[in-house]
Amino acid sequence: MLLDILMAGMDGLACLDQIKKRHPKIKVIVLSVLSDQTQIDGALKRGASAYIVKSVNPIDLPTVIRQAIYETVPTTFGLPDDTAATAAKTAGLTQRELAVLTALAQGLPNSAIADQLSVSTQTVKFHLTSIYRKFGVASRTDASRYAYQQRPRQEPPPRGRQRKQPLTDTAP
Hints:
single chain, alpha/beta, 4 strands
């Protein structure tokens, strides 16, 4: 089932709670314009199989949905690309392993990753094994989830008196 967070008449997370309570085996994929970490974490904690930000390329959407249903890819799609880079830096990945991880986070299968990097599928598997070892995980999904969890968190702006910034004209 595809579910949006922003719905008329009901909060999407409350709807997700009801769906999972009444039909726990149904896989729910949240498709939303919201990329706020609180919303994403809330949906995943409530049992969403995946969270897809609407910035994902529409051409990739059917593949991403299929992969989310079969749990062969990360649980979140369409977020900024710095997620993989931050996890790579933390775990000491090589540049090639980072490239494999980035492609993995995009939901690409091994054969597509191999084509993209001009290497053999066996080489991709070798790099994935190394990534799993460095992250301490056992699967593609776990590696992507680890990378997602290691990304930098945006701190909310401090409360209290703040100096107002002058408005500037940003139009070309």
